[in-house]
Design goal:
- Strands 1-2-3-5-4 form a five-stranded mixed beta sheet.
- It has about 160 residues and is of the alpha/beta class.
- It is about 45% helix and about 15% strand.
- The chain has one domain.
- It starts with a strand and ends with a helix.
Length: about 160
């Protein structure tokens, strides 16, 4: 599930207070309209329920709230590549068992100082059962396959 609230993907109250109204509206709309389908795709690809924690307050770039529903802002940057990568890793029983045994949690975040523009392997970490994805929201959205390859490479090495 997406951590943060009973329905998941919510912004923490203290972080939400720091966001402008447009960003809060954009996040709420994303959570209600797009999140359920993305979560279902991730869970189906993994073949098991995996906690997905999203640091929305870090992904919510100021001044872009109206763009959050566009596929090239969050969906094609984080969630589509993640689902495709999990499907690739879990394409057989060996992969599915590895995911179930070793992947406990996924964290989606954005740190402007460390998120890569295109060397996506530099935006990924796997530590103690947690996959951390640190990509730039809204940038190079068409690089889905490159993000998938980077996630697959890390998971296949780590699982």
């Amino acid at each position: 599930m997406f951590a943060g609230s009973p329905v998941g993907l919510a912004v923490r109250p203290s972080a939400a207070a720091e966001l402008a109204l447009a960003e809060r509206r954009g996040l709420k709309a994303y959570q209600e309209k797009i999140r359920p389908e993305q979560l279902a795709a991730i869970q189906a690809a993994a073949g098991t329920p995996i906690e997905v924690e999203v640091h929305w307050e870090k992904l919510a770039s100021r001044g872009y709230g109206q763009r959050f529903l566009e596929p090239d802002w969050f969906t094609d940057i984080y969630f589509v590549p993640l689902a495709k990568a999990l499907a690739e890793v879990g394409r057989d029983e060996i992969g599915l068992e590895a995911i179930k045994a070793k992947l406990q949690r996924i964290v989606v975040t954005f740190d402007d100082a460390t998120a890569p523009v295109s060397s996506y392997e530099n935006g990924l970490r796997f530590e103690a059962g947690t996959l951390v994805i640190n990509f730039r929201p809204g940038e190079n959205a068409s690089d889905i396959d490159w993000r998938v390859q980077a996630i697959v490479a890390l998971l296949e090495k780590s699982l």
